Structure formats: structure tokens, C-alpha cells
Amino acid sequence: MSFPHLLEPLDLGFTQLKNRVLMGSMHTGLEEEKGGFEKLAAFYKERALGGVGLIVTGGISPNFRGRLAPHASQLSFSWQVKKHKIVTDAVHDGGGKICMQILHAGRYGYHPFSQAPSKIKSPITPFTPSAMSARQVRGTIKDYASSAALAKKAGYDGVEVMGSEGYLINQFVSSRTNKRDDEWGGDFAKRARFPVEIVNAIREKVGQDFIIIFRLSMLDLVDNGSTWDEVVQLAKWLEESGVSIINTGIGWHEARVPTISTSVPRGAFSWVTEKLKSEVNLPLIATNRINTPEIGESIIASGQADMVSMARPFLADPDFVNKAAANQSEMINTCIGCNQACLDHTFALKRATCLVNPRACYETEINFLPTKNKKRIAVMGAGPAGMAFSVYAATRGHEVVLFEAKSEVGGQFNLARKIPGKEEFNETIRYFINQLALHKVELRLNTRLDASVLATEKFDEVVISSGVVPRAINLPGFDSPKVVDYQQVLSGQVEIGQKVALIGAGGIGFDMAHFLCEKESSTLQPDKWLKQWGIDKSYEHAGGLTEEAEHHPGREVYLLQRKTSKIGKGLGKTTGWIHRSVLKQHQVKTMTGVSYEKFDEQGLHITIDDKPQILAVDNVVLCAGQESNRTLLEEMKATGLPVHLIGGVDVAAELDAKRAIRQGAELAMAL
Question: Which metal ions or organic cofactors does this protein require, according to UniProt (predicted)?
Fold first, then answer.
């Protein structure tokens, strides 16, 4: 067995988990959709069949005021049990176990009825909560216990009490948000009384043969957060109260430190779980940016934790555990931590899915059934769209020939993976290469598909996924060899000087600024990354924060845009602030409302607010968008064969691998 520690059973006394892998809590949006619990059942069952040891649902509120949003899910009444049983029956039918997460949003509630220990507004929500009365505090504790009892009635194997990420329980525990002077506030023992009473009440209601996981905030990453001594003391009190397992919580949602995005090193926070290991006798779960069986095995084998939690990796690949058990980790569709289709969707109140796996949360809607009409299909371009279509179409039984003019597959991913913090894109390329081979897609590298090929070989359909080309700008001096595009820079075709102006402040401009400023990726150096973001690994400061390390940018970079709107406005909702922070760390100078005039030996001539100025730069890099690469489109259409466009060649907006891969999947279903 390649991963003996990861795949070893875990005995909890009254029940046994078949391995050490937890599918962590994720809100999918299906919880609120009409007929969503049937879809949720299919989603979780597929993961249960995929071998995961224990599943935890997205957060379910114990009462109305605890909802995350006005129509978010809660479990408070007997009539609500029936729909939850659809999910638990499906998971048990798939051979799995499942816990329901109980989550009270507190001041993070996105509605005017939110409550918190004190009347203090959150910086990330528009509503100011009302302060709970002592009676309401006691009532909320009862609501947690009642919700857990209903969960047991619905067939759940346990509950996870959400005590981290800055939600209600965290708000009671921390002096940052708890300013009460009654029995629920003041010294730490009083602030911690709330979670302890919740666990006591739940255990009394559900008995001893029911899993209680407590998601403990081990590292708040906010000012005036918990001290390490407080974390340890609360863990010990929770153990005495009858918790079965303690899960690691990292960072409040309002923290200005990235915790799960792709730029976070793999397993970057397992050290804090290890720090608690000697303090309690309960199984501990390590979490955050654990996305391969190798990382999970290392964490458990080294004694840092007893289990590992992976949430989004199970969006990317429901068969993660089975593939690991079969020693086929190279076949796992690895989560790249991009947030684009999961968290960004959730915060936009859309159904979550996955950039690299568009079937995630669409298990009842996107399926690649065997075709009754086998076709021979020519595909032009082996970027994300072309590779995805080829694999999915071949899965259905079509004969697919994939043409790529370059010497390697990957398209724009080959450029993206060179950006510091985006090394995970290598994994997607690796996955598709293995899938192309598995499904016997004929791959022709260094071969351009044109009409002559179609004239000599018989094909039934043509799919064009030839991607994009950088948009050129026609201005005086822009024909200089010192004015280049982002593809030339990332592919190593040109040398760049120490002073650089970037034209275009979308995602490509941000990536280029990061690439030019950071010579060595801190993502690949965990200790350096922790210092970069001011994380105190020694935990001498409350909340685990210290001063950020000083940065010495490799270049002087200007990031320019024509628009007068905020730089980076169009970036991902959950990652945009990270990209802006990185540029600030590297002292990138940003300018908006820029008119470009010319480039000459003096530098780049621009105008802002009718005031001309010259940026004395060595190079200008064009990051001002791209155009569809439709060079051979008319030639393809002239063959008379059905022609389909997917990916960037269809729509050349900001590079969008999520749309490209999904288009490939949808077309493969349709043909």
C-alpha cells in the first residue's frame, strides 16, 4: 500500500472510520435550490463511493438568526428532517459516513436579523448585528443541541460544530468581538463558556454513540485573536465535554492573510495542528491546502495529525481516495486552489462547481454516456478546452484526434504555471496528459490542423480550440523590440530590464507584475511564505500574527490601465484582495485613467488628467487583453464539415479556463 497511514482505519470506540481522510465542509448552493437535496445526495454519494472516510456537509444553521443569508439552510424543525434523510441514505448506500456541520453565522450573517455576542459590525458584511441577551444565548445553545438531535434523526453519523473562521462561536471566544460583562464575557473562562456549553448540551441530547467534531480556531490570524494558551485550554475543555475529534480551523474570514488560495504552500498550516497534538488525547485533523495523497500521507506519518481534511480536492476528483488506494495518484484531478468556480460562486450566491471538473455539483446533469453514433472528430488546439473536450468525447466512445501546432499540450496553462504561486497548473496539465492516454486520444504534436489534413483523412466533425493571441496596440514606437507582449515574456523569448511598464491591469497584468517582481516563488518555500504574510509560527502573539517581512522587489514596475476604476476590480471576489496585497508588497506602482501616446528612447509617454508625463522604463509589456485565434476558421468551414468553437477562440475575454473546460464538457455531451 503506497499510503498506509492515510488509508489506515481510525477507531473512535463506538464507530470506525475506514481511513484518515475527511471531506471537509463546503457550501455548494444546492442546499437552497429547488430539488437541491436530490442533487446534493448524488454529489455526496459519488464521493462516498470514491472512498472518503468521512464527509462533512456545508454549514446548516441551528436557528433563523444564525443563517448565513436570508434563505440559507437551517435544521430546527422535524419536518426538515425528511430532505436531509435523502442525503444520508445516499451516502450510506455508497458505503460512507457523513456529519452535518452546524454553523451559526453570528455577525457574518448577510441579513438584518444577525446576532452576535456584542453589537460590533463585521468588516465584510453590511449589517450590524444586535447583541444577544443572556436569555438568547441560552436559547441558542439549546438550538444547537436540538439541531444535532434532528441531525441524528435524519441519519447523520455525527455533527461538526463550526467554532472557527470568525463565526458566532469564534466571536464569543475572542475579546476582539466579545465585549460582554455578564457570565458570557470578560475573562477567557467566561468567553469560552459558550462553546463548552454547546458541546455539553449536544452530547446530552445525542448520547455517546454519535460523532461530535469541533472545528477549533487554532490560528485566528486577526489582531486581538486567541492566544496559544487560550487555544490549548479550550481544546482541553472540549475534550472533557465529550468531543470525538478536533478539526483545525485557520483564519477568520476577515483576516488579511490568504489561507486556501493556490499561492498558499501545500500543507502550510499543519504545524499548528502538530503544536496541539501533545496537549490533548483526541484525534486531530489537519487542514488547508492539502491536495495530494502524498501530502496527506506525510502529515499523518510524521505525527502532525491523525486525519487530513480536504474539501475542494473532492470537488476536483470524487475518486481521490480510491485512486490513491490503487496507487494511481497520477490519475487524480488535482485541486489547483483557484477559487474561481467554488468560493467565487458561493459568494455570488451561485451553485458551486470546479474549474477542473465541471461535473462537480452537476452529477445529475452532466454525464458522459456512451454514444450511439460514434464519430471521428478532429480537434485543433490542445489547451484546456481542447484537452477537456477530447477526453470527455473519447470517454463517450468517439474517435478523437487532437492536433497541436506546438511541441507540448497545455496552451495558456503553460504560461500560467510560470507565475509564482500558480505552480498547481502543472497538475492539471499532468492530469489531462494521462487522461488523453487512458482514453486513447490520438495526440499529434507539432502538427497544424488545416484543410489539407481534412481533405486526406475522413472526419465527421471539427472542433476548433486554438485559443487566443495577445491584442496588439498600434502607437508610435510600439514596433520597438523593447515593446513586447506577455506571451513573449512568459515563454522566455525576450529579456526584460529593471524598469517595466505594464499596459493592462486585468488578471494578466497582475500576473505579469508578480512574475517580474518575485524571482523565487515563496509558494515553494513555506517558511518564507509564512514570514511574507506575517504569520508567527512561534505563536508569541495573540492571533498568530507578527510583522510582515520586508520585501525587496526585483524590478521597478508600473501597472497601468485606461479605466479610472479601481485597479483589479474585475479579479476574483475571494482572491482579488490577495493579488492586490502581493503587488503592494512588491511596491508595484499603479496608475489609472492613463492615455498612451508613444514609446521612444526616453521611455513610455502617457497622459493622466490632461497632464503628460514620461515613464523612463526599459520595456513595455502589453497585457491589454487578447483576440480569438481564428486564422484557419474560414478554411475549416469551407470543408463543409460541422465546425464547433470552444474556449478562447469562441470568446476572447479575460483568460477563462473555467468556461473553456466547461464548454469542452458540454460539447462532448452534445455530439
Answer: [4Fe-4S] cluster; FMN
